[in-house]
Structures are given as structure tokens and as C-alpha cells.
Design goal:
mainly alpha; 4 helices; 114 residues
Length: 114
């Protein structure tokens, strides 16, 4: 919801920050990384289909929001934003998969009864 709300705000209005390009890319990367991490956690990391679904959703959402922003008078569409979205989604999803593979052996080594 935050991604949708923020993407639909017109820049240049009071209370809406105007970010530099690097800050905007970092914001796109971070938001999509968190989104992909949580989405993959909800779908389950053990299937390639879940990973692929998260990547396709992130890419589709990023492209759709940039196309929408191109229609706003105070916003512009950016291929760099879409690339930052996709890179963030890959980072977040890969981070979840790696975390799962690190935690799984620890869970198996814990006693089942205390």
C-alpha cells in the first residue's frame, strides 16, 4: 500500500519531498527488497514458482507504476526506477532464501521437547 500511495503522489506539492536520483533509486531498491522478502515468506521459498511469481509481480508493479507516473504532470517515468525495483526484489527474495537455508539446520538441531 505504501508503494502505491507514494507512487501516486505528485511532486512539487507542500509536504511531498523531492528526492535526488540516488535517494530515489535507494528508496525503490529498499522498498522492493522488503516487499519481495515478505512476499516470498508468505508464498514459501521452497519452490521456483514462488520465486518467479514474486519477481514477475515486482517487475509488473514497477513498470505499471512508472507508466502511471508518466501521466502525472509533475512526475516522470524512469527505466532506472524499474531496474532499481527489480534489483531490490531480487535482493530481498535471495536474502529470504539464504536466511531460510541458514535457519533450517538450526531448527532441526534444537530439541523438540524442553
Amino acid at each position: 500500500m505504501v508503494i502505491l500511495y507514494e507512487s501516486m503522489q505528485e511532486r512539487g506539492r507542500p509536504g511531498v519531498p523531492d528526492l535526488s536520483t540516488n535517494e530515489a533509486y535507494l528508496g525503490h531498491f529498499a522498498i522492493y527488497a522488503v516487499m519481495a522478502f515478505c512476499a516470498l515468506g508468505a508464498l514459501g521459498p521452497r519452490t521456483f514458482q514462488g520465486f518467479l511469481a514474486v519477481m514477475l509481480f515486482a517487475a509488473g508493479l514497477g513498470i505499471a507504476l512508472e507508466l502511471y507516473q508518466a501521466q502525472l504532470p509533475t512526475r516522470t517515468a524512469s527505466a532506472g526506477d524499474v531496474l532499481a525495483d527489480i534489483a531490490g526484489a531480487i535482493f530481498g527474495a535471495a536474502g529470504y532464501v539464504m536466511l531460510t537455508f541458514l535457519v533450517e539446520p538450526l531448527k532441526r538441531s534444537l530439541p523438540t521437547k524442553l
